[in-house]
Amino acid sequence: MKKVWLLGEDILVLNDVIEREGWTQVNTSNVAVAAVDRDGIAGFHILRTMPHPEPLWIRPDKRNTGLAEELANDMYNFLKDTNTPSYMVVADTPEAVKLCEHFGMKRIESPVYLKV
Fold it and tell me: Do 39 and 1 meet the contact criterion of CB atoms below 8 Å apart?
């Protein structure tokens, strides 16, 4: 078995498997290491560059004025206009939860791990 790195356009060969699995398609900004044998790709591990549109901060005297919603809407439109396939937010305040729900984001029930 041979290991290869898939970069740039080469990574797009994984999209057939990814589509069958119901996952978000890769793009040329992603990187993967793949195991290849005589029958083709035996496995792969992808490093995705997923945007985190956060933090959203509002100066205290401008809170509860609609500015947070306006900035969040601007960011949402940018993500939509640039065809960003997926993004995530760590919603650690009630206000952030409310905004995420407003934009139709799905709360993840799976364990999420962070390395800092």
Answer: no
81 contact partners, CB below 8 Å, separation of at least 6:
none
Mean pLDDT of the chain: 92
What pLDDT shows up at residue 82? 84
User: CB–CB of 32/5 below 8 Å?
Assistant: yes
The Cα 34–Cα 2 span in angstroms is 8
Cα separation, 107 vs 89, whole angstroms: 10
Strand partners, 40: 37
Provide the 3-class DSSP secondary structure of residue 12.
helix
Residue 26's nearest CA partner among 41, 48, 51 is 48
% of the chain at pLDDT higher than 90: 72
Q: Considering the entire predicted model, what is its pTM?
A: 0.68
Distance CA 36, CA 49 (A): 24
Burial environment of residue 72 by CB neighbours within 10 A (0 to 12, 13 to 18, 19 or more):
buried
Report the candidate in 96, 106, 60 with the shortest Cα–Cα distance to residue 75: 96
